[in-house]
Predict the 3D structure of the following.
Amino acid sequence: MGALENNELEQQIIETAKRLFVEKGFVETSMSDIAATVGINRPTLHYYFRTKDRMFQAVFSSIVMSLLPRVREIMKRDIPFMERVSMVLDEYLVRFIENPYIPKFICEEVQRDVNHLLATAKEMQFEETFAIIKEGLQSEMEAGRLKTVPLHILFLTFYGLLLFPLLSKNLVVTLFLKEDSEFELLLWEWKQYILLHLKNLLCVDG
Amino acid sequence: MGALENNELEQQIIETAKRLFVEKGFVETSMSDIAATVGINRPTLHYYFRTKDRMFQAVFSSIVMSLLPRVREIMKRDIPFMERVSMVLDEYLVRFIENPYIPKFICEEVQRDVNHLLATAKEMQFEETFAIIKEGLQSEMEAGRLKTVPLHILFLTFYGLLLFPLLSKNLVVTLFLKEDSEFELLLWEWKQYILLHLKNLLCVDG
DNA sequence: GTGGTGTTTGACATATATGTCAGATTTGAT
DNA sequence: ATCAAATCTGACATATATGTCAAACACCAC
C-alpha cells in the first residue's frame, strides 16, 4: 500500500501551508502558492486535502497542538499563580517570535468563522485546558490569594496585551524602532508590563 | 459641467464602500459588491475612483477624518490628563460601537501595507495630532504629574486594551455572553478597566 | 434643436482562483 | 514479471476579480 505511510509529504505540505497562511493570511494564499512552494503539482494538494477548507483545518490543528499541551502542563504545576502565568507568557512569546503572524492568523479566523474555529479547537482538548485555567483561577480567588475579577476581563487583559504588539508589529516597528531586529527585545520588555498589569489587576497586595 | 457638483453619489459610494470594507475586509469586498449595493454599474465605480486602491484611500480618509479632529480637540483642552484620556476613550468607543469592524479593518491594513496607510494618514494631519499628544505627555511627565513611561509602552497599552475586545468580538460573545446585545455593555465596563490600567501605569499616587 | 460636457453602461480583455477527472506513473506484494 | 493500489499530473470546467473602451445617454448653454 503506502497510502497511510506517506505522511512525510503530508507533513511537509502542512508546514509549508502553515508558513504561507500565517505570513499572508488564509484568503491571500492560494492552493497554487502552496503547491509551488512545496514543489508539487496543485492537484496533488487536492489529493491530500480535498478542499482548501480541509487544508486550513490541518494547519490550524497543527498550530494549536504546538501550544495547548505546554500551556496545560504549566498551569497544572503547583507553584505560585503569577509564576505560572509568567511561564505561559514565555511559552507564547517564544512561539510568536518564531512566527509573528500567528496572532494575525488567529484573529482573522475569529472574524471569518468563530464557530468553525471553536469546533476545530474543541477536537484538541481546548475545553479541558480552558477548564483547568478557570478552576485554577477560581480556587485562588476563593482562597483570597487573588482578587475576584470577572473571567472575561482577565481574558481581555491577558490576550489584548499579549497579542496586540504582534498584530501591530509593522506599525510599532515603523513608528518606534530603528530596525526590525529590535522588535524581539521590545517583546521581552513588554512581557514585564503585561505581568505588571496582571499583578495590578489580580494581586491582593497591590 | 456638473462634474464637480455631483459629490452626492460619490459620498454615497464612499459610505457604502466603508460599510462593506469594514464588515468584510478589503480583500473580500469586490468592486462588484460595492456597485451592486449602491445600485449602480461597476464601471461607474471606476469612473469615480479609477482603481480599487483609490477607493480604499477615499474610505480610509473618511474613517480617520471622522475621529482625528475630535481627538485633537480633546487633547488640547486644559483639564487633567486622565480626564482627557477618558473623553478620548468615549470618542473611540462610540465610534466603534457604531461600527465594530473598524479596528479589524485598520489592523488588516497595518499588515497589508503600513507605509501606504501612514502615507494616507499623513495627508490628514495625523502627525500633528501625534505630536500634540506626545508633547502633552512629555510636559506632564517632566512636571512630575505623570510617571515617566516610554511612548511605545503607552501606545501598546492604550491601543491593545482599546482595540482587542473589538478584534475578538466574535470570540468574546461566543465564550462569555448570552447574546450579542450585551457586548456594548461589556465595552463600557471594559472602559473602566482601561482607565485603571492607564492610571496604574501613569499616575504617581498609585 | 444643436453641440459639448459630464456621466453611465454593455461588452470585452485579462488574470487568477478552486475543484474534477481520466489517464499516466510509481510502488509494493505476490 | 505482473497486477493492483496508491500517487501524481495535464487538461478541463467553472467562477469571479479588475480594469478599459467605445458607444449611449442626460443635461445645460446657446
Summary: The longest helix of chain B spans residues 102-122. Residues 1-5 of chain B have pLDDT under 50 and may be disordered.
